[in-house]
Design brief:
236 residues, little secondary structure, 0% strand, flat
């Protein structure tokens, strides 16, 4: 439950709620129950005096309490006597039972096959007629082949004819290769495209003295945008 304070400060008030404890309740459905009590505590603001709240809330104006009339108490009901139902229902009056005639029962006899021969034919016998098979002897022995010379010609022999009495080619007397001792006076594309140039000596840089560390006199966007403001202490 919530205890309302006796007085309010202006139009603002605060409730301080405290959990006062828990209790174990055996025998319930969950076997555990947590009970919490909240005690209202008034907080007084400095510089204002307490005044009673004389206004109204929407809950009070919309939900007006009405007196509840007490309902009359009737006497205890008596049990109705258990009597058989003598009336008739629409089902009993519309759906009458009719006597059904007895159905004829056929007595099946024992099957007796015919003793006369079958004179007809089947599609198998008419389409697959047996034919007389003539037996032949085994495979005859292969005939002996005679090895004869090849009297024909080939396309290679007919296209590439061999000529007789061709003059012999003159062959220079062979000797060991002797390279020339004269210097090479020609020029190559490498020497013609990549011409060497004289390299100039680069000056050697000497490091100077270290500069003195000076404080930063500039400004940043953070320092310009977020400026510190002095915090004024509140009166106790």
């Amino acid at each position: 439950s919530i205890a309302l304070p006796g007085s309010l400060v202006g139009s603002a008030f605060v409730f301080a709620m405290a959990n006062v404890g828990t209790a174990y309740m055996p025998g319930t459905e969950s076997e555990f129950a947590r009970t919490t009590a909240y005690v209202g505590r008034e907080i007084t603001l400095h510089g204002q005096r307490n005044a009673a709240f004389e206004g109204s809330t929407t809950n009070m104006s919309d939900y007006v309490e009405h007196p509840i009339e007490q309902r009359p108490v009737h006497g205890q009901r008596t049990a109705a006597p258990s009597l058989p139902f003598d009336g008739q229902s629409t089902y009993s009056s519309e759906f009458h039972s009719h006597a059904l005639p007895e159905r004829h029962r056929h007595n099946a006899g024992v099957y007796q096959p015919s003793s006369s021969p079958f004179d007809g034919t089947t599609t198998y016998n008419s389409q697959f007629v047996p034919h007389q098979i003539t037996h032949t002897s085994g495979r005859p022995a292969p005939a002996e082949r005679t090895s004869l010379p090849f009297e024909g010609t080939t396309s290679y022999r007919s296209d590439y004819t061999q000529y007789a009495n061709l003059p012999e080619r003159a062959v220079a007397p062979g000797g060991q290769y002797q390279p020339s001792s004269a210097p090479f006076e020609g020029n190559s594309t490498y020497n013609g495209d990549f011409v060497p140039h004289a390299l100039e000596a680069r000056p050697h840089h000497q490091p100077g003295a270290l500069r003195e560390s000076l404080p930063f006199d500039g400004t940043t966007t953070y320092g310009d945008t977020f400026r510190p403001f002095p915090i004024q202490p509140h009166a106790a």
